[in-house]
Amino acid sequence: MKVLLVGEYREGKLREESYDLVAFADALGAQRSMVLVAPAGTVPTVDGTLYIADAAQCGEYNPEHHKRIILAAVEREDPDCIAFVHSSYGWDLAPRLAVALGAAQVSEVVAVAGDGAYEVNCCNAKLRRAVTPKTPRTILTIQAGAFSLEREPAGMPAIVPLDVPLEPDRIQFDGYEAAEKKGVDLGRAEIVVSAGRGVGKKENVGVIAELAKVLGGELGASRPVVDAKWVDHSHQVGTTGQVVSPKLYVACGISGAIQHVAGMKKADFVVAINKDRDAPIGEVADVLVVADVMQFVPALTARVMR
Amino acid sequence: MKILVCIKQVPDMESRFRVSSSGNWLEESDLAFRLNEYDEYAVEQAVQLKEQLGDIPEITVLSIGPDRVGESIRKALAMGCDRGVHIRDPESSRKDPWQIASLIASFAGDKEFDLILTGMQSQDRGSAQVGIMVSEILGYPCASTLVGFSYDNGIISARRELEGGTKAVVRLRTPAVVTCQLGLNVPRYPTLPNIMKAKKKEILSVPVADFSVVDGHATTLRLYQPAKKGGGLVIEGEVNDLADRLVGILKQKTMVLR
Ligand SMILES: Cc1cc2nc3c(=O)[nH]c(=O)nc-3n(C[C@H](O)[C@H](O)[C@H](O)COP(=O)(O)OP(=O)(O)OC[C@H]3O[C@@H](n4cnc5c(N)ncnc54)[C@H](O)[C@@H]3O)c2cc1C
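The joint structure predicted for all components is written out below.
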């Protein structure tokens, strides 16, 4: 099997997840090559063929042009499978390529089953789906972290420059906007107590903040709580929020979606409070308290204060 | 101006899921269904645009699925869409994203929509493919994962969410497709008068057999509960006892409580 990996480069850096793709290809025992849009001189330490197009000429973000570049690499390499990271870059480009190539796409692959089916999460990871492509060529996006290299990658690629003529693009990229950096720095907190949608309403967040306070920690939050403007974005934990590594993480009314867990899985000890015994957060919690947050948290706060 | 919003009905994620006897989808009989969260943002964005442009746009909301998806179409109508289209398909959960996108594109093909909005993904399958595939089939430009949207004179200015909270600022000209991410706006709750009004709005119901459905590119072979990796201790009971037990555990296992 021949796999073409689509590496990712953003704002001066090769994104580390590009190496997850190498791990994925190695897990499959596949022959691999990589295609990357990056400034001249950016070379990932990975052996095999590297098709590279110059970002200075064609832009870092430009789905229509990047699609044409990947198609050019596909034409030369003739891979059975094209793998992206399931990221804002990968999930945006993969379907474009799938349509262009008339190929099946399987999104956010977390494992490969014994019979070769691709395993993906379903319903907030409460279920898994094994999917089989019916087309000769397959496009995959791979969940970040699902396959990771044990050792630092090594090797020097054989570089093949790709020069794909620029065509007028219909999507104009005007630049990046950095994440807001003001507010709380949860990254250094020893205790983080986070409110999730399960707290029910804005007025209830105070109860969670109170527990954070008596424990001497900071208030965190899941994304819906931030989106609903119950708390400020600087408290958000997760892939699009902050990554925390406290000694204690308390998840109050949080289901445990992958994007949230990615932000708190480095915590030493995790307590989850959820009325749903099957909530996926149970998989990463050291203790799952099956209870209504609004009844349990005040009781816990009172007990800690005593 | 003509706007199309594509919505999906999904099971409530807090349900207890069982695998159906076919072994490759959910047992649906005991599930509650709701409008896919990501699609609520798409509906809201369409309605806000209509408000901005003073009633000029006409918003069609489209859903493919069994009879029950009519409820989600009604919700979107109560939020402010003008008319509904229901492609009746009891087998929609067996179709892959390519088939669903092809159906939407064949519906939209001759109708000259200026803007098509979808959620970035569904909450049940999370494939994040349909909206982008629709754009590719129709030959429209597309920006995905929007957390910012504004429209002026045929030009959409959008902010795409990238990792770590970084955003990419992009512009594209209509006709276009955009896919909506959580937090793009604050979806409104339908008010009672609007729910009443929605009852009078037209829902065009067409059987999927009226379309020529393309072959799928991928199939769900199995659906199953993943093996629990162990997880930790699960405690249940009366809240004060639970609080005592938890404090005991924290004192024993962590350094944070003394
Ligand atoms: C690209 C992308 C990036 C994302 N980035 C992030 C991110 O950075 N951070 C993030 O958090 N999410 C992020 N998300 C969203 C993520 O997928 C989930 O939607 C989100 O984490 C869910 O938040 P939640 O657990 O608070 O809400 P839900 O998933 O709605 O869960 C609520 C939980 O509360 C429980 N509950 C309800 N009522 C009670 C009660 N009374 N007592 C106890 N428990 C109760 C329920 O059983 C449920 O488990 C992202 C999504 C995408 C697609």
